[in-house]
Specification:
single chain; mainly alpha
């Protein structure tokens, strides 16, 4: 959590969330650090980072639908859906905006202790077999 607090986009979120969780746990007489209490998670913190990143992104249309949510867990992991609109509807520009956003998000995922899941391909399996 201390490392996450260094990320300026979510420092305020973390301070507020930590206070909220501490108050909830105190109100329910749950000792700090026990598994039955509320706590912050890296996936929830990453989701909040995405929201704050997109709120500050100059190419996002903020007067239209803005949604970042987790979808149901499946065999491929925990999907995160990003549903926002760009403020530039020219197709080529839209594709570049989308690519830039995902380039950034994919690059910062490890900072949150998370990994991107991708189904292995035949080439991955051949490389694994060859390494043994």
């Amino acid at each position: 959590l201390e490392e996450f607090s260094k990320f300026s986009l979510i420092a305020e979120y973390l301070a507020n969330k930590r206070a909220e969780i501490a108050e909830h746990n105190r109100a329910h007489d749950i000792a700090e650090g026990t598994i039955d209490g509320r706590r912050l998670t890296n996936i929830g913190t990453f989701r909040s980072y995405i929201v704050e990143y997109l709120k500050k992104h100059p190419k996002i249309h903020h007067d239209m639908t803005f949604l970042v949510r987790q979808l149901p867990v499946g065999a491929d992991g925990l999907p995160i859906e990003i549903y926002v609109f760009s403020n530039d509807q020219a197709w080529g520009n839209y594709e570049a905006i989308q690519a830039d956003i995902f380039d950034h998000l994919l690059a910062v995922v490890p900072e949150f202790g998370l990994r991107i899941f991708q189904n292995p391909s035949g080439a991955d399996l051949r490389a694994l077999a060859a390494s043994r």
